[in-house]
Amino acid sequence: MQYLDRALGFAHTTIAPCFTTVASSPPLLQDFSVYVLDLDAGAPTNSARAEMIELLRDEDTETTRIVGSVLLIEERDPAKRQPVYAGRYMMGPQFRFVADDVYVSPLVMFQMKFDGKLHKFKHRYDAAIENHRVEDVTSEQILNHVIDSFSFYRMHAFTDTKAW
């Protein structure tokens, strides 16, 4: 269980503050509602949010877990939030436990208009590092990944054709 404690420690001391920084961005808050959802606090009362968290965590195993907090950015325009998952961008840290090492990578999820499906993207904080130890991930890498992946969401989530 020590590995889970290390993952939770990193999630609370590094990832959650980064998500809180994003959630307090005045330019972002002009067009979006931003939430940092604590996974230990139970399921959100909003069913779409709760279902997205459940889908994000559907790969949890003994050696792979999403713990700590997830970042949720929602379009303020209600028309963009239809159907159910549209207009919602979610990011969470996925931890992998191998021997005594704890690795982390970001998972991003949002619905794409071109096929109406929810897509989950497994990324890396640094493209050159396949297994990124929690001790080596920086706040700057986390924040840069939020910016990069949210920019991708903004460019492609509402297009009628597959862009990649």
What key phrases describe this protein's structure?
164 residues; alpha+beta; six-stranded antiparallel sheet; 6 strands
Describe this structure in words.
The protein has 164 residues and is an alpha+beta fold. Helix content is 34%, strand content 28%. It has four helices and six strands, in the order H-H-E-H-E-E-E-E-E-H.
Oligomer: single chain
Average per-residue pLDDT, rounded, comes to: 93
- Helix percentage: 25-40%
The largest pleated sheet is described as: 6 strands, antiparallel
Count the E strands. 6
Distance between the termini: 39 Å
Please, how many helices? 4
Structural class: alpha+beta
Unreliable spans: none
User: What Rg is obtained from the alpha carbons, in whole angstroms?
Assistant: 15 Å
Secondary-structure element order, N to C: HHEHEEEEEH
> Based on CA inertia axes, which overall geometry fits?
globular
Strand content: 25-35%
Q: What's the arrangement of secondary structure elements?
A:
Blueprint: H1 2-23, H2 26-31, E1 32-38, H3 47-56, E2 64-66, E3 69-75, E4 88-98, E5 101-112, E6 117-122, H4 139-156
Helix pairs in contact: 1-4
Summarize the structure.
The chain has 164 residues and is an alpha+beta fold. It has helices spanning 2-23, 26-31, 47-56, 139-156; strands spanning 32-38, 64-66, 69-75, 88-98, 101-112, 117-122.
